[in-house]
Each structure stands twice: as C-alpha cells, then as structure tokens.
UniProtKB/TrEMBL annotation:
This is SET domain-containing protein. Coiled coil: none annotated. It comes from the Eukaryota. The keyword Zinc-finger applies. It comes from Mycena pura. Keywords: Metal-binding, Zinc, Zinc-finger. Residues 48-87 form the MYND-type domain. PROSITE patterns: PROKAR_LIPOPROTEIN (PS51257), SET (PS50280), ZF_MYND_1 (PS01360), ZF_MYND_2 (PS50865). GO terms for molecular function: zinc ion binding. GO terms for cellular component: nucleus. The lineage of its organism: Eukaryota, Fungi, Dikarya, Basidiomycota, Agaricomycotina. Residues 4-235 form the SET domain. Gene3D superfamilies: 1.10.220.160, 6.10.140.2220, SET domain, Tetratricopeptide repeat domain.
Length: 429
C-alpha cells in the first residue's frame, strides 16, 4: 500500500514524500512489514519473539532457551529468517566480555543488528535489493564504533556491517502498542520516505498479527492535499527544549517546521515558578487564555505575536512533567477533583503543542474520561452526578473521534475497547 511518491528536495534530506491524491483523516498512506525487530528486555518471555503478540502461553526455543514463540509456525518462520544463524551461538555471545561491556541501548542495537545480518546472510529475499534499501538511507551524523554481532557473516564484509550500523540511530523505529514502547524495528521503506515535523500530518502505528512480523501503517491525521508533503514525528513533539539538540546529535539536521520556528521567534523559554501558589496562578492564566482564544498547535504557530510572553513558562518541559505527574498521581490516589483540574490544564497545553488528532491527545482525553467516571462511582462527588457524567461524555466523545482516526493498533485490548466499555457504563447508569 503506497499513497505517496518521492520528489527531490534540496534541504534537509534528499527528498519529500508527497501525497499522490487527496487523503482524508484516517487514510492509510503506507503499509510495510519489518525487516528485523528486537524486543525490549522487559518484553522478553512476555511477547512472541517473532510476531510480538501477547499470547497466553509461550514455548521456549529448546536450542538457546532465550527466544519464545506463540506457536511452532512463528518459531519456524523466525528460524528461517535468522534464528538458525543465531541460536547455538546466542548464550556464548551474550555472556562474552565484548557484549557485556556494551551500554544497554548498544546491547539492543547489537542484537537487532545480529538479527538483520543473519536475515541478510540467510538468503531470505533478494540480498542485493534489501541491502541497497538499507544503504540508500542517510547515515547518522556520528560515525559509530563497530558492534560485536552473534557470528561472522560469510557474505557481508566488516565495512558493510559498519555501513548498516551507521544508519541505525537515525533510521530505526520504536515499536509501540497504545503509545507504550515494546521494541525496535528496521523499516527501510518508511525511513526512506518520510521526513520529520513537530506538527506532523501523519503518524505510524504497528499492527500485530500471529504468524507475521509487525507491520507499520502510516495513517493521515488530517486531510492531506494531493502533492502535499507527508511528515512523521521522529520523537515526542512535547520535548520542547531538548528536541533540537536530539535532531542535531541523532539525525544531523535542524528542524525548521512551523512549531520550531514559533519557539525560535519567542526566544528562550523562562523557567516556571517553583512555589505551588505561583504554579497554580500560571495554570489558571493558561486556562483563561485558552478559554478566550481557543487554538491548537497548528493555529498557534501562525501568529506567535499573539501569545502572551508571561505565559511562555508553560512550555518548559519541567512544567509539562509537573502537570502530567500531578494528574497521574492524583487520579491514582482517588483525588479526582485535583486530578481533573490538572488534567484540564495539561489538556489545554497539549492542544497548543500537538496538531489535531494527535494520538497523545486522544489518550489523555480518554484518561480524563476515566477519571470523571471514577469520580462518579466514588462516594465523594460534591456536585451533581449528571454534570460529571456530561463532562465524562464530552471527553470520551472527543477521545473516540481522535483515536478512531489512528484506528486499531498494537495489542488487542486497548483504548478503543476501553471507550466501548465506558460508553456502555455511562448508558447503563
């Protein structure tokens, strides 16, 4: 599935992925299967090492006792893909001094690189075409040191291995289910096509099915005109102070999207207040501003002069973290009025940072709806139940609208199921 084409671009990067036709929100733009993946350590023994689903039971590889599968089908598929090259060598490799000396993220890269090299060396698919799809990607800005892999390839030289690894840091994707990371993956086609924007018009999701490696689907978040560039976020756009440094160190470019230009124009973000009363006042003034002039991340960036300078501290990453942690902790502890207050402030801030239909917006709205519901069923409701139910429905309806744009993804039990359950509970009460 491909609803984009590449067009030449002078800077940054080499090309643009532009829509070949008008796309509505929720349209599938691209679908591509992973070339190689690796699970994060906490997910090992919990997910199938091939398809990454969450089965009730897993069977352990009898050869290495380190890989787990939901079925003999997945085990055979991964055996043919790369595990036959890895299995008997795995225990000795992971206990070696060379591997143990690696940092945690380097260990993941080393294992993912081993999977990829074994896949190429096993002759699964046309090796020249696959290798070309990887080496056609731009290398990272820093020449990395060589990583030890499970075995020495008979078909690929050391220089080729280094060329491949030099493209890992700025091209591989984080695999996630309902915004929770569970692994990393190599998707050369998607890496080749999509540039970054902090106000993207598309997002990647991962479809998990038995007997298949994870599939990436790129979905339109809003209407995209024919010939308009399609962009993905390479990281969470809410990393407002650190994202430019990450772009330069990890990807070798300076982002010039409208969001980054907005923050360049307004200048350094001041530190937020540390006193609780002053933080509360800052949050209150943000809510008053948003009530008087509702806007989202797209409209904010078109008119930076209209944003009050005395509110700029709300964009500081520490203030965002403060709001998020306070909302989460209060909701968890049953302090629902406090949770709702801070959740509303965080929602207002998210609307300024993220573009419409961004998944994090939908997930936060769902968490807000769940908090309202928990307040309804608690014994400490100090207002009318119908008023709280009305607020719950408003947040739930918007969460549903946003998350349905992205559609089903990740594990089976997720936010769309939670929305259906909460809708039924609201109807029955």
């Amino acid at each position: 599935m491909l609803n984009v084409k590449l067009e030449p671009r002078t800077w940054p990067g080499r090309s643009n992925a532009v829509a070949t036709e008008h796309l509505s929100a929720g349209s599938l733009i691209m679908s591509c299967e992973a070339l190689a993946t690796i699970l994060l350590p906490p997910e090992k023994g919990r997910r199938c090492d091939f398809c990454h689903t969450l089965p009730r039971r897993l069977q352990k590889c009898s050869g290495c006792a380190s890989y787990f599968y939901c079925s003999t089908i997945c085990q055979e598929l991964q055996w043919q893909a790369h595990h036959k090259k890895v299995c008997k060598r795995f225990g000795k490799y992971t206990s070696s001094m060379a591997f143990q000396a690696l940092a945690p993220h380097e260990k993941l890269d080393a294992l993912l690189l081993s999977h990829l090299i074994a896949h190429l060396d096993s002759g699964v698919g046309a090796i020249n075409d696959t290798l070309s799809s990887i080496t056609s990607l731009l290398p990272g800005p820093v020449d990395p040191a060589s990583l030890p892999i499970v075995y020495s390839s008979s078909r690929l030289s050391e220089s080729v291995l280094k060329d491949i690894y030099s493209r890992f840091g700025n091209n591989n994707f984080v695999l996630h289910s309902h915004l929770t990371t569970f692994g990393h993956g190599v998707f050369p086609l998607a890496s080749r096509y999509f540039n970054h924007s902090c106000l993207p018009n598309a997002a990647a999701k991962y479809v998990l099915s038995p007997f298949k490696q994870p599939t990436m689907e790129v979905v339109a978040l809003r209407e995209i005109a024919s010939e308009e560039e399609v962009c993905l976020p390479y990281l969470d756009p809410a990393l407002l102070q650190s994202r430019q440094q990450i772009f330069q160190l990890s990807y070798g470019f300076e982002c010039r999207c409208s969001s980054c230009i907005f923050f360049e124009n307004v200048g350094p973000i001041p530190d937020p207040p540390t006193l609780q009363a002053e933080r509360e006042d800052l949050a209150l003034r943000l809510m008053q501003f948003m009530k008087a002039t509702p806007r989202d991340g797209l409209t904010l960036t078109t008119n930076s002069t209209s944003f009050p300078p005395d509110l700029l501290a709300v964009f500081h990453e520490t203030f965002i973290t403060y709001l998020s942690e306070t909302f989460t902790n209060a909701s968890h502890d049953g302090r629902y009025p406090t949770a709702i207050h801070f959740g509303q402030v965080l929602l207002a801030l998210y609307r300024l940072i993220y573009p419409p239909n961004y998944p994090q917006l939908g997930m936060h709205l769902l968490e807000m709806a769940k908090t309202y519901w928990n307040r309804i069923i608690s014994e400490n409701v100090d207002t009318t139940v119908e008023q709280v139910k009305s607020e719950c429905r408003v947040h739930l309806d918007e969460a549903k609208a946003i998350l349905h744009v992205l559609g089903s993804e990740g594990d089976e039990e997720g936010p769309l199921t939670e929305i259906t359950t909460l809708e039924r509970l609201l109807t029955d009460t």
